[in-house]
Amino acid sequence: MTDTDIAGGKLVRTQGVTAPLGYRAAGIAAGIKANGKLDLALVFNEGPDYAAAGVFTRNKVKAAPVLWSQQVLTSGRLRAVILNSGGANACTGPGGFQDTHATAEELAKALSNWGTETGAGEIAVCSTGLIGDRLPMDKLLPGVTEIVHEMAGGLSGGTDAAHAIMTTDTVPKQAAFHHADKWNVGAMAKGAGMLAPSLATMLVVVTTDAAATPQQLDTALRNATRLTFDRLDVDGSCSTNDTVLLLANGASGVTPSQEELDAAVLAVCDDLAAQLMADAEGVTKRVEITVTGAVSEDEALTAARAVARDSLVKTAFFGSDPNWGRVLAAVGIAPIELDPDRVTVSFNGNPVCVNGTGAPGAREVDLSGPDIAVLVELGLGEGTATVRTTDLSHGYVEENSAYSS
Amino acid sequence: MTDTDIAGGKLVRTQGVTAPLGYRAAGIAAGIKANGKLDLALVFNEGPDYAAAGVFTRNKVKAAPVLWSQQVLTSGRLRAVILNSGGANACTGPGGFQDTHATAEELAKALSNWGTETGAGEIAVCSTGLIGDRLPMDKLLPGVTEIVHEMAGGLSGGTDAAHAIMTTDTVPKQAAFHHADKWNVGAMAKGAGMLAPSLATMLVVVTTDAAATPQQLDTALRNATRLTFDRLDVDGSCSTNDTVLLLANGASGVTPSQEELDAAVLAVCDDLAAQLMADAEGVTKRVEITVTGAVSEDEALTAARAVARDSLVKTAFFGSDPNWGRVLAAVGIAPIELDPDRVTVSFNGNPVCVNGTGAPGAREVDLSGPDIAVLVELGLGEGTATVRTTDLSHGYVEENSAYSS
Predict the structure, then answer these.
(1) How far is A352 from chain B (nearest CA, A)?
(2) For each of chain A's 405 residues, which pLDDT tens digit applies?
(3) CATH code of the domain made up of B4-276
(4) Would you call B332 an interface residue with chain A, using a CB distance cutoff of 8 Å?
């Protein structure tokens, strides 16, 4: 992707969380992953402000780091985020929560020793990996001290951090937005499977050098996640660890309006969501399901999600098969207002079903390319929504049938 | 399977719809399928009674034969059922409905010519196959006359009929129940994919020589489908054509109690549901998800279905991987009352998660066999339910990525 002009600025993918002023980051191999790859990341906010907001998984089974970070975020203030791959620290009981707490305490101590007085209550913790195993704290805790030294040495650790949070991701995901008025937003994300209804399974850290209150950040972040990560549905599975954080330090000296902040955060999150879709487990097709003409936006979203989650639709797309009847069957079971005789469907702009009946040439529509745009027109109202998904491929089955073993 | 003693009688799989007295059936190759296989089936009730009940798909997009048969069933009376494979006649517009109507008229004429005065309004029509194409009526209509002649020649066409309704099924599915009091129930079913929430994608015809009113049949059929086909969920997809019919002719002279009828119909449907699971597209594992301790049966069913539909759980089972964290993640996103710290999970009787935390040895549980029983204990109440499903395999992807083309 080349740079994109958007929302009064420019969007790039070559930089991440350290693109804004006043942030440092690092990524190291602490030995949490058995294969020796990078597995520990740190994002550090140098100030002067420490405003922050977070959005977390809606799964009732929440990992220890989610429970911890939710509690920390009630203050609306964050100095640092420490993230590990190689283990989700979910379903690990009280011992797992103590491990998260100990990680935050260790980082607070290391940062304080480095000269930045920090409390554990100013530190968010994120984990990703297999559910159910305790983290190797004998590796993790020394890694926390090491990564502070690493970060201290330079300002360019954003890309290392983006690498260190990867699990089955094949590429790191970063995006940065440079506003014409000299303030910036940067972000990194991970997530390749268990991507679903409310927040893809993923960790996202967004930084900005704009000045903003925690409440403004919360508004911008909820607006952005609702329209981007919440509408990315690879396999209908929703993780125990999903976390999206937004930090603002005011280092640019600029205080954008709420609308400007919303637009910038949305632009960065939207780009990351597209990157997550493109790198989803086993993906061979990038699929966008758009539903229009529903009686409300909520119903449009429900219908789009029903199609996006339908295994028969997804396997057909893997086979480049314009089997539009499966789209109708999926829409028909969605709990929405529907008149089957008004439904019109097109694939990549080619009508395949008009008013509930097959269109001439529908079986010959060419879906062999990597992108499939599905448009479902319900013809009832003004509600519109788009969900990003992927096909269901042999690669998905392969990757997910051999993940923990 | 050997004969099973159950509900005051005996269950066998060697007979189907012609097991009860007073039914004839046939299956022929009418040329609807391009490959020349059997594709047209007839079940004919010789009387003396013609009581009947039906349960149909909850999909809002209903195939023409579903709309027709629902209308016919309002009379509580059926003389015959004509079923075709090789085309669903769904999303085919007014022309498709006229094709269904013409099929019933043609059969009424052929049966009347054979000496049994019959009206089109006493005939149910079922279709299965690809959605969206019109049926080849130039083949189907002559087939209707031919199949009446075929049926006239003998009493043993039940197995041919069971073959003729197959699509991606690899084996015909039949079951019969012989009550000790000399009345009988017989049935056939098809369905291998698009098996989901409310009725698997399937056609089922159940016959009995017991005497019963349409209302009694309706009660027995709704009770049975609720507990069997409605709890079979292979891929979360719900068809446009699902139809389950129950016919009673009183030929045995026996009038069982409602309880006896309920038990017999349930036994036959339960056995057919097990057969459908075992022959589902791409199946390598037969999986039963049981949830206990929910606050209600509805919530237990919701939780069991959430696990049964989770692609990550299903791919793990394909890999014989005891990845119990995915079960917890799936339960955690179900819209039910849940205390994550009370959830206990076992695989084939081996505890893998106790009170929300991994059990020792959980990663070593052997799931290499063809049957996997998952027990999820929520510890909150008395609600219990079981859902049958399968793994998500390469075979499933292969079969469904190449179905229409």
Answers:
(1) 10
(2) 557 888 889 999 889 999 999 999 999 999 999 999 999 999 999 999 999 999 998 888 889 999 999 999 999 999 999 999 999 998 888 999 999 999 999 999 999 999 999 999 999 999 998 888 899 999 999 999 999 999 977 667 999 999 999 887 888 999 999 999 999 999 998 886 544 433 345 788 999 999 999 999 999 999 998 888 887 776 556 678 888 999 999 999 999 999 999 999 999 999 998 888 887 767 888 899 999 999 999 999 999 988 988 888 888 898 898 989 889 888 988 889 999 889 999 999 999 999 988 899 988 999 999 999 999 999 999 999 998 888 888 877 777 676 443
(3) 3.60.70.12
(4) yes
Q: How far apart are CA A127 and CA A88, in angstroms?
A: 5
Q: Tell me, what's the pLDDT at A314?
A: 87
Q: Quick one: which of A127, A90, A66, A274 has its CA closest to A187?
A: A274
Could you give the 3-state DSSP secondary structure of residue A36?
coil
d(CA B388, CA B396): 16
* Residues 38-57 (A) with a CB less than 8 A from some CB of B: none
* Domain A286-400 listed as CATH 3.20.20.140: no
Domain chopping of chain A, boundaries = 4-276, 286-400
d(CA B123, CA B82) in angstroms, rounded, equals 7
Q: Burial letters for A294-312: b for 16+ Cβ neighbours within 10 Å, e otherwise?
A: bebeebbbbbbbbbbbbbb
Chain B touched by A60 (CB under 8 Å): yes
Nearest C-alpha of chain A: how many angstroms from B384? Answer: 20
Which residue in A60, A315, A393 is closest to B338 by CB distance? A60
Q: Give the residue from chain B lying closest to A364, CA to CA.
A: B405
Phi-psi bin for B19: left (phi > 0), alpha (psi -120 to 50), beta?
A: alpha
Distance CA B357, CA B337 (A): 19
Helix (H, G, I), strand (E, B), or coil: what is residue B127?
Answer: strand
What is the distance in angstroms between the CA of the first residue and the CA of the last residue of chain A?
Answer: 36
Give the up-direction half-sphere exposure of residue B388: CA atoms within 13 A in the CB hemisphere.
25
> Which residues of B does the annotation mark as catalytic?
201
Chain A positions touching B355 (Cβ under 8 A) are 93
Three-state secondary structure call for residue B206: strand
HSE value, Cβ hemisphere, 13 Å, CA-based, for A339: 12
| Chain A to chain B Cβ contacts (< 8 Å) | 225
Q: Give the ipTM of the model, two decimals please.
A: 0.74
- Known binding residues of A are 167, 190, 201, 281, 400, 405
Cα–Cα distance, B364 to A285 (Å, whole number): 35
| Optimal mutation site among A56, A57, A60, A372, interface B, most CBs of chain B within 10 A | A60
Question: Helix or strand or coil: residue A50?
Answer: coil
List the 164-223 stretch of A: residues with Cβ below 8 A of B. Answer: 193-194, 196-197
Q: Which helix (H) or strand (E) holds B11?
A: strand B9-12
Is the pTM higher than 0.90? The answer reads no
pLDDT at A220: 95
